[in-house]
Design goal:
This protein is mainly α. The protein contains six helices and two strands, in the order αααααββα. A hairpin with an 8-residue loop joins β1 and β2.
């Protein structure tokens, strides 16, 4: 009987420790689409409506992907745990060094983006997909000290340096790396393979763009295709 109880407790704890995050159920096709990509790096969706109140422009790059899901539908998202840029941590901006000492490796062309703080891939075991281990959210200050070291009591947490999680370096493998480690990569500089045809709106996507767990429909409406693709199709007739 004791063995059975121990086994059940161990199974429960193991399952909790290895519990899948919310992105796990999306699989890779929740964010990427190898056949109907809408933006660079075969991103499945992008937010082409929401105006970043801090820049006055639409979301760019990876931020457009994240807000393609994490915003209200009327603001160009899918209504999944919406993020409102007028009341959240700034993104899409160049950090003010008097406010935050952001490591250059966490920026993209000098701009702070969603993935500066989060690695959204399912291989990230950290709370809320943060790049820094916060012990399940109980030590968020350890994460904050990455960019705001003057504001955090490092002695309180017993931490002097932080390590950054990344899944973007396939040569080194997923894991935590020091900021000065050359293996720490949050962006892979690769050709923008589909950029020549432009950034396409979400409307041409198959149904599983925002409902990835329902049966897939690989038949986007031809009338919704971008002019560039229509032109190519007409040339072949």
């Amino acid at each position: 009987m004791r063995k059975v109880i121990f086994f059940l407790i161990f199974t429960f704890l193991s399952g909790s420790a290895l519990a899948a995050g919310p992105h796990e159920g999306l699989d890779c096709l929740g964010c990427h689409d190898p056949h109907y990509a809408k933006a660079q790096k075969i991103f499945k969706v992008k937010n082409d409506k929401y105006i970043n109140p801090r820049t006055g422009k639409k979301p760019q790059d990876i931020n457009a992907l994240c807000l393609g899901c994490h915003n209200l539908t009327e603001f160009g998202g899918a209504g999944i745990k919406p993020i409102y840029l007028h009341m959240t941590h700034p993104v899409g901006i160049k950090p003010n060094p008097k406010i935050a000492k952001v490591p250059e490796k966490l920026l993209r062309k000098g701009i702070l983006q969603c993935v500066s703080c989060h690695d959204p891939h399912p291989s990230n075991p950290n709370w809320k997909y943060l790049r820094v281990d916060t012990k399940g959210g109980s030590q968020v200050g350890v994460f904050c000290m990455t960019c705001h070291p003057a504001k955090v009591d490092t002695k309180f947490y017993g931490v002097q340096t932080v390590k950054i999680f990344t899944s973007m370096n396939e040569e080194a493998g997923k894991g935590e790396f020091a900021l000065d480690d050359p293996n720490l990569v949050i962006f892979n500089i690769t050709p923008e393979y589909i950029k020549p045809l432009g950034n396409f709106p979400n409307s041409i996507a198959p149904a599983y763009t925002t409902v990835p767990n329902l049966p897939w429909i690989y038949s986007p409406n031809p009338q919704n295709l971008p002019p560039e693709l229509k032109k190519l199709l007409n040339q072949k007739k």
